[in-house]
Structure formats: structure tokens, C-alpha cells
Design goal:
- This protein is an alpha/beta fold.
- Helices cover 37% and strands 27% of the residues.
């Protein structure tokens, strides 16, 4: 797994490449939380275009971050999450609902 952070269209984008499983999950959790805490303003995009699998703990972290970001009046978009991950995320009750996008043109 590799994580890169960049700016695009006024959003902070976290690109995740490779599978996020087992040992990588803790690194993903730490980097995602750090990203949100370090950037007090603006919106976030978590880009999973090149991530074939996201483990259950990482999905739970996305829910936690989603709640924190929205509580602060900011937005979080999830880009190109695979079908299984998206299905699992859509089953999690959260307000407002998760915002999924399929391409960077939609952010």
C-alpha cells in the first residue's frame, strides 16, 4: 500500500494505491486521521481508484472520519471505492450519507 496526499480543485486528496489489509490498515488509519487533523479547513477526497481492496477496519475508519469532517462543516468524498467496499459503506447508517464519486471530474 502507498499513500500520497495532494491538492486538486480546492480539495485535499489522499490517493491510496494497493490493498489496505492487515498490517497496512494501521498505517492507513493513522495517515487518514492525521490528514483530517492537520487540515482544519476545506474538503477531502479519499481516492481508491488504484486500491483493489479495503479491509473492514479501514472502512470503519472512513465512517469515523466522515462523521468528524461533517461535524466540522466540511465535506468528504470517496472516489472509486470498489463495489464490495461501496456496498458495505452504503449499509452503514450515517448522516449525511456518504458521498461517492466515480471520477475526479465529479469532485
Amino acid at each position: 500500500m502507498e499513500i500520497n496526499v495532494r491538492e486538486s480543485k480546492g480539495h485535499t486528496v489522499m490517493d491510496v494505491t494497493g490493498e489496505v489489509m492487515f498490517m497496512d490498515t494501521q498505517t492507513f488509519i493513522e495517515r487518514a486521521r492525521e490528514l483530517v487533523e492537520r487540515n482544519p479547513g476545506g474538503s477531502f477526497v479519499f481516492n481508491f481508484t488504484d486500491c483493489p481492496h479495503l479491509g473492514t477496519l479501514a472502512l470503519g475508519t472512513l465512517r469515523e472520519i466522515h462523521i468528524k469532517v461533517h461535524a466540522r462543516g466540511r465535506k468528504l468524498k470517496i472516489l472509486s471505492l470498489n463495489e464490495t467496499g461501496r456496498f458495505r459503506m452504503e449499509e452503514i447508517p450515517v448522516e449525511p450519507p456518504f458521498s461517492f464519486v466515480e471520477s475526479e471530474d465529479e469532485i
